[in-house]
Amino acid sequence: MELSYKKETRKVSLVSIIGNIILSGLKLMAGFVARSSAMVSDAVHSASDVISSIVVITGIELSAKESDKEHPYGHERMECVAAIVLATILALTGLLIGYNALVKMLAPTEVVIPGVLALVAAIVSIIVKEAMYWYTRHYAKKLDSNALMADAWHHRSDALSSIGSLVGIAGARMGYPIMDLLASLVISLFIIKAAYEIYKDGIDKMIDHACDEGFENEIRELVLKQEGVKRIDLLQTRLFGNKIYVDIEIAADGDLKLRDSHRIAENIHDLLEKQYPKIKHIMVHVNPDNPL
């Protein structure tokens, strides 16, 4: 990976860490002062974002290491590992918040009406976390980073949980104190859903999941247009972290000299790498079109 990739991801993750530390502190204070379970749960969610951003930085740093003797294909999958770790942290956070909300709902001790400070904190959180989502998402797409995209969705899930907090706190202040706890429960479901989606995407890229059919069809059409290609006998693709590996078998005239067959294969190799920067490695095999 280029130095600029590491520099950009460090910058984005650092912004996330600083923003979440400030935001989680403010929400935690507001939650305790205003006596809002939903806001305290929301603060815990924001605090988990700090851990997530640290995991993202670590994963990206490791995935950016050059290939070596023990790892000749590189370390790109470490970014997927970071995303899976992040998803696990998210899921545990969601389960803990949901468990605490259920315990308080099933064994209520006193009616607590959250203060107006909790409402203000929820509104501020929604605005800040949505802005952080779009900021991180922009760089995730620009750098094609699975871990950064996971971090972006972590911000979005926090914004959604703050909306839940806002609704719950407002409902409690209108005379329905159970709404504050229900909001915590809804927040936990949002978090668990986000964790599942991040986990699934990370696993897909860890186990050599094939690229989508549309991408493979593009490759087929492009290769079949090249001079000397009679047909495609085999096309296999796999995701390797945020990179793509391609194995393709083409048929060419069996009477061609080895040098000419090699030229056809080399042209296809260079064309696909130029056309699709995400492709890291291509293996092109040439079969005789008219075998004996």
Task: Supply the key terms.
single chain, 292 residues, mainly alpha, 3-stranded mixed sheet, 70% helix, 10% strand, elongated
Oligomer: single chain
Unreliable spans are: none
Computed over alpha carbons, the radius of gyration is: 25 Å
Name the overall outline: elongated
Termini separation comes to: 46 Å
Quick check: average pLDDT?
A: 80
Helix content: 55-70%
| Major β-sheet annotation | 3 strands, mixed
Element order, helices and strands? HHHHHHHEEHE
Per DSSP, the total helix count is 8
- Strand percentage lies at 5-15%
How do the strands line up in the largest sheet?
A: 1-2-3
User: By helix and strand content, what is the structural category?
Assistant: mainly alpha
How many β-strand runs? 3
Structure write-up:
Helix content is 70%, strand content 10%. The chain has 292 residues and is mainly alpha-helical. It has a three-stranded mixed beta sheet. Helix 2 (37-63) runs parallel beside helix 6. The radius of gyration is 25 Å and the shape is elongated. The two termini are 46 Å apart. The model has no long low-confidence stretch (mean pLDDT 80).
Task: Give me the secondary-structure topology.
Blueprint lengths: L2 H32 L2 H27 L13 H30 L9 H28 L2 H28 L4 H29 L6 H12 L6 E10 L2 E10 L5 H18 L3 E10 L4
Parallel strand pairs: 2-3
Antiparallel strand pairs: 1-2
Helix pairs in contact: 1-2, 1-4, 2-3, 2-5, 2-6, 3-5, 3-6, 4-5, 5-6
Question: Could you provide a short overview of the structure?
Answer:
The chain is mainly α. It is 70% helix and 10% strand.
